[in-house]
Amino acid sequence: MSPLRQIWRVIRAAHPREMRRGLALGVAVALSGVALLGLSGWFITAAGIAGAAGLGAHFDVFRPSAGIRFLAITRTASRYGERLLTHDATLKALAALRVRVLDGLSQADFAQQSRLRGGEALNRLTADIDALDGLAIRLVFPALSGLIACALSFAALWLWVGPGVAFWVVGLSLTGALAVLIWSGRAAMIPAAEAEARHQALRSATIDRLRGRPVLAVAGRLEDAGAELLALDADARRAQMAQARIEHRAQVLLQALSALVLAGALWLAGDLVLQGRIGAAQAGLAVFVALAMGELTGALQRGAAELGRMRDAARRVVPLLQMSHERPAPATATRPGLRLQGLTAAALPGLPPVVRDLTLEVAPRETVALTGASGRGKSVVLNTIAGLVAPVSGQVQVGGEVGYLPQRPALLAGSLRDALALAAPDADDVMMGAVLRHVALDLPLDLRLGEGGSGLSGGQARRLALARVLIRRPDILLLDEPTEGLDAATAERVLAGIRDWLPDAAILTAAHRQAERRMADRIVAL
Ligand SMILES: Nc1ncnc2c1ncn2[C@@H]1O[C@H](COP(=O)(O)OP(=O)(O)OP(=O)(O)O)[C@@H](O)[C@H]1O
């Protein structure tokens, strides 16, 4: 099934009743629109003829004008109801879709997450899902209600005017509009997708450059970065213009088609009147129905132009809905502590292994330091034990809960209390204060951090992340260079604090510093 159809299923399944009612009202809108114009045409012509013939006093103006008023009110009311129902249902479905995409993004495994950058994830959640809101409102509903209205108009024209006129008006409108819409949909496919891709690139690049502002400023490259962004912006607008040009051409073609259908309807119906086969009022009906056809096809034009954008967005969003929720669970050992047996591990699945055949045991109350030159695979070993990546071969056995301080832990905006509550929602202020003291962080719990934990020094941020791991009191503690960015005295205090807080834990540390090695009972070199 194509991604676009999968998305349509999700949207439809979210609120099927509202969608069905919305469609019924959409058909009512289309039909009352055609009927309103048809009846008006008939009425104007019939009243004119009656007046010219001096029969005005006997002509029944009340019933047709009541009918016209009724149709006008029906059209307005059903348009209102249709908009209310379909927009409401679509927006709710998209909100649900956004939650599912966010869910997919957060459930994604380590490999998928490390491939997806922040800007891209934001694009998936916002721009891509926004692009899909036109699927129901601008494409599926106008197409379905238009088709039904066309079929009924065809029957009415056949019955009251004649088969030739019915074929000309409905048949030509339908096939002509279909041809134009297919052409414009195809022609706009690439520019529409490109415009979207460029806009997304611009958004990602803007986030990147904003994040990297200090580096760019120091390197004297701020102006260049600005120029790059402007160039991306110009690219995005160029692609959007190309799409708009195709849309305008489609509009012109549809209007020309409408004029052609109208002229033909006039000529054919006029001919039938001259032959005496229909009355002038019936001819009026035919001409006005021809006018109404243009309205039906025009409604689809926007949707056709956006098809490329929607299709690409669906292609990117659907895989996120099916993100694997499985994690490589480490084998739980009956014995406490940590055991690695013949572990061969790679940074990401599919990459060549960086660590081969590592066998290692860390008992409770023991601290082991993992050493080795930069890039030897210390972090890879810790990621594998933490279950972020599955081992290539060999075994990881953990006897208890694992806590992990990665090399670059993420902090979120909020207070220090919020940061700790993320790991231990039930912890009280006394416990939080105690854990902060153990990592030598003398800051109030109410202190508020900005985006990404900004507002703390590098060493403070690291200690807060460490406190967040410690507060859960894990049985097995994995630390990737825990004292990076700390002065020697603070580093000593933190290392002593860790052991004091978790006297029984099995601790494995990726260590570069002397202090970290001194803390260890054993050293394992990679
Ligand atoms: N996301 C990744 N994609 C591809 N290769 C990676 C990735 N992460 C790490 N690697 C590679 O795996 C190898 C081991 O990296 P790792 O981070 O485990 O080293 P390390 O021993 O912890 O180094 P350091 O002491 O500098 O932190 C490196 O050669 C690195 O290039």
TrEMBL record:
Principal cellular location given in the protein's record: membrane
GO MF, any single term: ATP hydrolysis activity
Pfam family, one: ABC_membrane
Transmembrane regions listed in the UniProt entry: 21-37, 43-62, 139-159, 165-183, 250-269, 281-300
GO cellular component, one term: plasma membrane
Keyword Transmembrane tagged: yes
Domain ABC transporter: 338-526
Membrane topology summary: Multi-pass membrane protein
UniProt xrefs under InterPro entries: AAA+_ATPase (IPR003593), ABC1_TM_dom (IPR011527), ABC1_TM_sf (IPR036640), ABC_transporter-like_ATP-bd (IPR003439), ABC_transporter-like_CS (IPR017871), P-loop_NTPase (IPR027417), Type_1_exporter (IPR039421)
UniProt domain ABC transmembrane type-1: residue ranges: 22-309
Alphabetic keyword roster: ATP-binding, Membrane, Nucleotide-binding, Transmembrane, Transmembrane helix
Intracellular or extracellular location(s): Cell membrane
UniProt name for this protein: ATP-binding cassette, subfamily C, CydC
Naturally occurring in which organism (per UniProt): Paracoccus alcaliphilus
Species lineage: Bacteria, Pseudomonadati, Pseudomonadota, Alphaproteobacteria, Rhodobacterales
